[in-house]
Predict the 3D structure of the following.
Amino acid sequence: MGKLARGAWKSRLMVCVAAILFVAIPYSRAIAQQAPEKTIPVSQMTAQQLETRGDAFRSQKDPMSALESYNKAISKDSNNAVLWNKVGMIQLQFGASSQGPERLRRYAEARHDFERAVKLKKDYAEAVNNLGVIYYQQEDYKKAISLYKRALSIRPTASFHSNLGSVYFAQKKFEDATQEYLEALRLDPDVFERSSATGILGRVSTPADRAKYAIMLAKLYAQLGDVDHALVQIRTALENGYSEMEPLYQDSEFSNVRKDPRFAELMQNKPTALPE
């Protein structure tokens, strides 16, 4: 399978999310991969040891055990903002994969945890961003925008700009969304290659919206001279029923893309639109 085809499948999955990224605290790969501490009884572990234990469980994709360890760490160090943020991220993960009352309960827990983290550390940009994710998921876009902008005022990052762009996209404010996505790409060219660790579903739900989202990304990649990613996004748009060919052939942003022989090949062999 060629590079473009492989990228297309990857991008097709990526476009089904709205690039909403909650931000974790990096921890050492060596620490994350080590097995949970066995030589010290859990009841005798320090808060730091319990946090490390939780990180190890997270790396092993055992969020329930990680949550238990983090909560025990908090019981010994309740003023640790990083711990509250980590607990909130796991609650957010559980909420994203739940339905009905359980989903609401998990989101409420996550919101409480992120708010506690921010109260303890007012300039904690990651926790502010993560709190914005909660409001985005609940479609409280005004509150989400306020929080994402606050996170950006503390520290501008690609993920924060991407998240703000996704709110604007959900509101169909496409020019504002484009500006935020472009800034995200300038800060981190790989930002759209990643979804959040939980695969939180965004609100780019209909084929028409997925197509528009893909064309928006294609134009952004083209503006930055990244023809490979632009072509992948054009293919994704076509797979979602995109039919407005005129911009692809006439917009100046796509001039370099049109010069690539793969563009002509793609246009001659347009993929069949995928079923909803």
